[in-house]
């Protein structure tokens, strides 16, 4: 239940996919993300898959691996319910999930007893349990079942305690327990955006927010956490201070923030769309997937050239190659590419590119930046620029992309401009080649209206102070 990477058939660091796998009569329920993770590979060859019932946010991470073409898997919600013994078992809504008892398991034998120690019947279901009226001979262990029988230590202090948050998993299917403080844009989603268990919170307006007041203990350490995706912010306000966890991603992930309650005995938890995210200016064809489309290209007459390249910094389809052909005739020229984009005035921006050096000449470089004019030939119009030298990026340990590209970046303020021209210009006459890829122009600000944020499994737990924090609390 609620597992991540539920069936990873291509994990580890091996170069080859596994084979000879037996995966028979299993149940995977409410998987987080795709049930089967192949990392882009095919299912293992020479393997046996049969009698498996699986369900999650998707069948596989590979579009070529589907329920229709992958035998042995039934993509169905088994509708299990958790019993008093904490074990998930079938319910009145569970569909038929008969095990495949005729499958060839090679040198392996199918189990003859279930999780309760009861003998399996001739029509046993898949999974660990078969509903049998007899008394179970095996049960989950408790603390009384383990350790020395002749001695029981005095129960110790509970170091981690959970704070009661009403409807923290949104299992009610509505906002019960939460106050809709934004007025609009807060709802419960039940579609493919659900994290687990059928319901998740979705906010789709910059003003949308839900909150809940909970009781806390003064001068206590706490950690607030949730699984979030989209542009999400989870905050807690206590004793006049606000602490927040933020996440910007197209997939769910665990985010948390820790804090001390100070003199506070109550705290307000708020889920909202993040008010400060990384926005990107609309650069067309920034990865050169479509060669030079959407870019202004200026070359010399045979010597300074702009060409397409199959190399790529991010696994896409290409990049731009600057080349100086010393054997060609013509007038030397520093070729460049440029594109005019819309920007916010008086805003701090970051322009980044990836640079790949394909020669032994360490002096070869490019200059990249932004200009207030569409024709960048007059450098007096340049708002900001930077010489990007590949050898310096490499020795500095800058972020590395595919094909040995290295990332370079430039920060600047847009000033009064509402449009700027991003460019990269070749600066060499030595016969070297340089490739550039993955232009990105970004700034921090409010997300676009309609940006979504998703939340589930919101938790607040207390935990002990460290010795240093305890001494500081006593000194106060």
Would you write up a description of this structure?
This protein has 476 residues and is mostly beta strands. The protein contains two helices and 28 strands. The strands form six sheets. Strands 9, 10, 11, 12, 13, 14, 15, 16 and 28 form a nine-stranded antiparallel sheet that branches. Strands 17, 19, 20, 22, 25 and 27 form a six-stranded antiparallel sheet that branches. The longest helix has 9 residues, at 467-475. Residues 165-239 form the CBM-cenC domain. This is CBM-cenC domain-containing protein.
The pLDDT mean sits at 87
Strand content: 35-45%
Q: What overall geometry do the principal axes of the alpha carbons give?
A: globular
Q: Let me know the number of strands.
A: 28
Kindly name the structural category: mainly beta
**N-to-C CA distance:** 46 Å
Largest sheet: 9 strands, antiparallel
Stretches where pLDDT falls below 50 for ≥5 residues?
466-471
Query: Helical proportion?
Result: under 10%
> Helices and strands, in N-to-C order?
EEEEEEEEEEEEEEEEEEEEEEEEHEEEEH
Radius of gyration: 30 Å
Compute the number of helices: 2
Keywords: Hydrolase
Pfam families: CBM_4_9
Protein name: CBM-cenC domain-containing protein
Region (Disordered): 109-132
């Amino acid at each position: 239940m609620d597992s991540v990477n539920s069936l990873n058939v291509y994990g580890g660091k091996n170069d080859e996919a596994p084979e000879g796998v037996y995966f028979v009569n299993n149940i995977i329920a409410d998987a987080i993300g795709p049930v089967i993770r192949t990392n882009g590979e095919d299912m293992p060859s020479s393997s046996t898959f049969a009698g498996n019932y699986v369900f999650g946010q998707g069948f596989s991470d590979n579009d070529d691996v589907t329920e229709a073409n992958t035998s042995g898997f039934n993509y169905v919600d088994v509708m299990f319910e958790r019993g008093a013994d904490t074990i998930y078992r079938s319910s009145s809504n569970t569909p038929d999930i008969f095990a495949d008892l005729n499958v060839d398991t090679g040198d392996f034998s199918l189990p003859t007893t279930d999780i309760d120690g009861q003998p399996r019947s001739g029509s046993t279901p898949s999974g660990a349990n078969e509903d049998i009226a007899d008394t179970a001979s095996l049960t989950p262990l408790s603390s009384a079942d383990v350790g020395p029988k002749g001695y029981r230590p005095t129960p110790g202090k509970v170091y981690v305690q959970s704070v009661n948050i009403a409807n923290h998993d949104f299992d009610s299917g509505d906002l019960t327990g939460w106050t809709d403080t934004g007025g609009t844009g807060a709802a419960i989603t039940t579609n493919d955006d659900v994290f687990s268990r059928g319901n998740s919170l979705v906010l789709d307006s910059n003003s949308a927010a839900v909150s809940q007041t909970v009781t806390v203990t003064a001068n206590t350490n706490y950690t607030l956490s949730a699984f979030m995706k989209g542009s999400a912010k989870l905050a807690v306000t206590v004793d006049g201070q606000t602490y927040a966890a933020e996440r910007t991603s197209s997939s769910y992930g665990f985010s948390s923030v820790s804090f001390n309650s100070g003199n506070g005995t109550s705290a307000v938890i708020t889920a909202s769309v993040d008010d400060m995210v990384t926005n990107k200016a609309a650069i067309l064809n920034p990865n050169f997937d479509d060669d030079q489309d959407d870019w202004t290209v200026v070359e010399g007459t045979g010597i300074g050239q702009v060409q397409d390249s199959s190399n790529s910094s991010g696994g896409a389809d290409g990049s731009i190659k600057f080349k100086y052909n010393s054997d060609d005739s013509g007038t030397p020229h520093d070729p460049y590419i440029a594109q005019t984009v819309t920007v916010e005035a008086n805003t701090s921006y970051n322009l980044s590119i990836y640079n790949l050096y394909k020669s032994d000449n360490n002096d070869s470089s490019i200059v990249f930046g932004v200009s207030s004019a569409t024709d960048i030939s007059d450098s007096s119009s340049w708002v900001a620029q930077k010489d990007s030298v590949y050898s310096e990026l490499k020795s500095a340990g800058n972020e590395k992309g595919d094909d040995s590209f290295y990332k370079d970046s430039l920060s600047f303020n847009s000033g009064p401009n509402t449009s700027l021209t991003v460019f990269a210009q070749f600066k060499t006459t030595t016969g070297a080649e340089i490739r550039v890829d993955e232009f990105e122009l970004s700034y921090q600000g409010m997300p676009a209206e309609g940006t979504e944020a998703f939340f589930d499994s919101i938790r607040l737990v207390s935990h002990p102070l460290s010795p240093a924090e305890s001494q500081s609390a006593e000194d106060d």
